[in-house]
Design goal:
heterodimer, A: about 220 residues, mainly alpha, B: about 325 residues, alpha/beta, eight-stranded parallel β-sheet, globular
Chain lengths: ~220, ~325
């Protein structure tokens, strides 16, 4: 794994902070959109199901598209050649998310997050809060070199965890999981090599959500 | 130098470092401003195919120079390079695989303008023959050089296509030497086959006090065939120095004028007579000073090398 990481933790911190500074607005906008859509899904889940699913699909397809182009290709790839292929994988995933959100593959197949008092629902909401809140919390520390902190809507781990949380709440189909899982496994390896506990926590959250979804039967509700 | 020695004679020198040539390294004028301490005689080694002498400690750039556009970090790395040249350093080794390292090197070299002393070494690393040519041109552009001292095929990737291309560039005068590399102790059998090729002047491999697989076949073969040897990962990518740092230097370190574990590790590698140059990587000026001082003073003899191995393995 060491051979695949041609940069230090210090440089990864500078890389993330430089990218956040250049696109800082995306993070608060993403958090607002996530909260807004969750509230809307709770209130209007039956009457406006198609519209909400399209909104979720477009939100995540857009975020993952930005991740592919802005982060993987333009920011990360100069430091690591593998970023080129990660970007292609993320682009493909953005397409899959859009297809599902717009209900193009299955009449009833769409994002319909359902918040209940079940343990998996609580876990998913907790992971969503972690994805959105861990980065800002870590950044309170400040200093040089910059602390390594992910940003939902901007950087890979926080964005994949947010997606996975909504996918669990929506019982999204199995084919929306493999690409993010591969990319997060790689991120977990990076976190281990560079010894970044915060990134390790986010990777563990994603894997926890994956296991949760598997335990409930992938694609059970929507036949995906 | 090594070319004229048979394997038996070479090994007969019993790893004493007698094959090394010591000369006084001249400090370039541009590097003198930042030189705080007197710089002693440096250990040079000859490239077997030409007899050209180069400093026996060079610099790798894996991770340490992949720092992107940050101006503060680039200024730090420029200082590291300034100390490298001030201490008589020559070989700098990089690769297109190392992210922004070649771009950063080009920036640093432009600040320092080391007209003399630089022994530039990079690599071609791609499955595609056409892309190999593009990578080569990129390296010229990124380093800001018209000619390279050495261009290597990285990790044996499609060497069948790249080696003739690099040899043709050598004939054109754009490269002085051609080489082939491997790392982390893998594919030694394949490397041994390619080493027999007359077009190869240099081989690069992993060798350190704990990873000594190269002693069995590749280092003696390089001596036999008259190939220069570059040693990567002399510190096991920092793991060895990290492991040894908490322990005090043993008394025998004074026998070879070593004042740090890094110097012990480098002197161990350089004491193998088949080794031409070791290329530790660092991002710290203090570590660069320490590394370059390994070119000064005596090298361990065969008995001391065995003791170094035993003591370090026991720690």
């Amino acid at each position: 794994m060491n051979r695949l990481i041609p940069y230090s933790g210090e440089i990864y911190g500078y890389l993330l902070s430089g990218y956040r500074e250049a696109s800082w607005l995306l993070e608060p906008l993403t958090i607002l959109a996530l909260v807004g859509l969750l509230l809307a899904s709770r209130v209007w889940s039956d009457r406006h199901g198609r519209i909400l699913s399209a909104a979720w699909g477009l939100l995540f397809a857009g975020l993952i598209g930005v991740l592919a182009s802005g982060f993987y290709h333009q920011t990360y790839q100069p430091y690591n050649w593998a970023g080129l292929y990660f970007g292609y994988a993320a682009m493909a995933q953005a397409g899959l998310i859009a297809v599902w959100g717009l209900g193009l593959v299955h009449r009833r197949g769409r994002f319909r997050p359902e918040i209940t008092r079940s343990w998996d629902s609580i876990l998913a909401l907790g992971c969503l809060a972690l994805a959105a809140g861990l980065g800002p919390l870590l950044r309170l520390e400040g200093g040089e070199p910059p602390v390594i902190a992910q940003a939902v809507g901007l950087t890979p781990l926080a964005s994949w965890v947010a997606f996975a949380a909504i996918a669990v709440l929506s019982r999204a189909p199995w084919w929306l999981w493999p690409l993010p899982t591969v990319l997060v496994l790689w991120e977990a390896g990076r976190a281990w090599v560079l010894e970044i506990p915060g990134d390790g926590l986010l990777a563990a959250a994603f894997l926890g959500l994956l296991v949760t979804r598997a335990l409930h039967g992938l694609g059970h509700r929507d036949g995906g | 130098m090594h070319k004229s020695l048979s394997r038996r004679r070479l090994l007969g020198h019993a790893l004493t470092g007698m094959a090394a040539t010591t000369v006084v390294a001249a400090t370039p004028r541009w590097a003198k401003a930042a030189a705080p301490a007197p710089i002693g005689e440096k250990l040079l080694r000859s490239i077997p195919s030409t007899g050209e002498q180069i400093p026996s400690v060079g610099m790798g750039t894996w991770i340490t120079f992949n720092i992107g556009p940050n101006p503060t970090l680039r200024a730090q790395r420029t200082e590291v390079l300034r100390r490298f040249f001030a201490h008589g350093g020559g070989m700098i080794d990089s690769s297109p695989m190392y992210g922004t390292a070649e771009d950063v090197l080009g920036h640093c070299l432009a600040q320092l303008q080391p007209a003399e002393g630089l022994f530039s070494a990079s690599k071609v690393w791609t499955d595609s023959a056409g892309e190999g040519i593009e990578q080569l041109e990129d390296s010229f552009r990124l380093w800001g050089l018209q000619n390279f001292s050495l261009m290597q095929v990285h990790n044996l990737v499609n060497w069948q296509a790249h080696l003739p291309m690099l040899h043709a560039r050598k004939q054109e005068g754009r490269l002085r030497y051609v080489g082939i590399t491997t790392s982390h102790g893998s594919r030694h059998g394949a490397l041994a086959e390619v080493m027999a090729d007359d077009r190869v002047d240099f081989v690069q491999l992993t060798y350190n006090v704990l990873d000594r697989q190269a002693e069995e076949r590749l280092l003696p073969l390089a001596a036999d065939l008259g190939k220069a040897v570059i040693v990567n990962r002399p510190f096991r990518r920092g793991a060895l120095t990290e492991r040894l740092e908490p322990h005090p230097l043993p008394g025998w370190a004074a026998e070879i004028n070593a004042t740090s574990w890094a110097q012990v590790l480098l002197k161990f590698v350089l004491a193998h007579p088949a080794v031409t140059c070791a290329i530790p990587a660092t991002s710290k000026v203090a570590h660069m000073e320490e590394n370059m001082r390994a070119m000064e003073g005596p090298l361990p003899d065969a008995a001391l090398r065995q003791r170094i191995i035993a003591d370090i393995e026991a720690l």
